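Example A, followed by Example B.
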Amino acid sequence: MKKLFSSLDPFELQAVRSELDARCIPYMVKNEYASGAIGELPWQEAQQELWLLDEAWFNRASEVVDALTKAKGNTSAAFLTDWVCSACGEENGSAFDSCWQCAKSQLS
């Protein structure tokens, strides 16, 4: 399984879910019912996340996310998905702005 998307905006998350459903891309929602635990858990631990059940769908699913974020005018799409460093080829998590291996910025 591979993390595809998370958002603080429940409408944005639902839009991605709807598009994935329309394309029959298999996914699961992590923390779908965890919002009631906010306060007991840090909000980051209770935030909803979309995970692909089969990584073979990652490229197609990423295109869906990219198209929706561009349509919304969101310029922060870079933090939504994992990325591969262009300098050293290391795979980095979506939380990293620069490569943990060589420190090259994701945007450069």
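Example B, a separate protein, is given below in the same form.
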Amino acid sequence: MRGPRDAGRLANLSFLVERDRRDAFLEAVRALHQEHEHLREQVTGPLPPYSFVQAG
């Protein structure tokens, strides 16, 4: 899910990750950083599930 637009960012994305897959997800983020060290990643969470519901 795309997050709110923010000036100066390439992307602002949200991912709903199952608890037992959290470590694998964070490892994937670390691998992304190793491949693209010029990019800055920021991981925030966990967020409540209602954060992923779009308003009608």
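On Example B: The mean pLDDT is 82.
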